[in-house]
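User: Can you predict the 3D structure for this chain?
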Amino acid sequence: MRKAAVTTVSTVAGIVLLLSFKPHRDPAPAQAAPPPSAAAPRASSSPAPSGSESPGGGRSGTYTGGVSDTAYGPVQVSVTLSHGRITAVKALRTPSDRPRSREIASYAVPRLTQEALSAQSARIDAVSGATYTSEGYTRSLQSALDEAGV
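Assistant: Here is the predicted structure, written as structure tokens:
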């Protein structure tokens, strides 16, 4: 009887520990497979740098990312840097050909912008329900940061 109680307690404790384990979060957004009818999203480059090296170190200026074509429309952002730090991200193009696409962009882009400002990089989480817009946003943001040499 005592052996069965010890085994049960050990099993329960092991399950509790296992369920409380939280693996490290992968900083890269998960890649979702596009629907069969959607063309694979691609990023095209259309850089328009307007920055320079700051005397205090790090790049400063505004850099335009490439247009990222998604299944629901193009996404393009520009990023403003001050001494190598992201101070602003502006969405230049977002999916807008359908009312639902405009609605999704209206709630996703501010969240993505806040994430980018907090993370100080393009390594941000996708917004739930806005996977394609999120992926396009991060690709365009990364191309702008690449252009800046950050």
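The beta strands are 42-44, 50-53, 59-64, 67-70, 73-82, 85-93. The CA atoms of residues 31 and 135 lie 8 Å apart.
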